[in-house]
Write a structure and sequence with these properties.
Helices cover 53% and strands 0% of the residues. The protein is an all-alpha fold.
């Protein structure tokens, strides 16, 4: 029996869709259509990526003011939860209750 299977090589050993001796998948017209759409979309993306939105002169320093403002906002938000400054006199004020002068 094993000799017959070896000589005739009928069927695909193991799982038919994975492995070295897998069954090739049939290509349908839907697969071709989807691949063509995918390639067209990719070509259009490459077209738009190849053309810059701004020139080098426009791009240089265009965001410095916005970045500085956002940094100030972050800094203010960080200090908003910070407690107020207290003097040492405020901490020790309860010790002065007996002084009359």
């Amino acid at each position: 029996m094993f000799l017959t299977l070896t000589l005739l090589r009928k069927g695909i050993p193991g799982k038919q869709w994975i492995g070295k001796y897998r069954r090739p998948r049939a290509i349908t017209w839907q697969m071709k259509r989807n691949m063509v759409k995918h390639l067209e979309r990719e070509a259009e993306n490459e077209y738009w990526i190849s053309r810059p939105y701004m020139t080098m002169e426009e791009e240089h320093g265009h965001a410095t003011e916005r970045r500085a403002q956002s940094w100030l906002n972050i800094k203010q938000a960080k200090f908003a939860n910070f407690p107020e400054h207290k003097l040492i006199a405020d901490h020790l004020n309860h010790l002065r209750i007996t002084k009359t002068w």
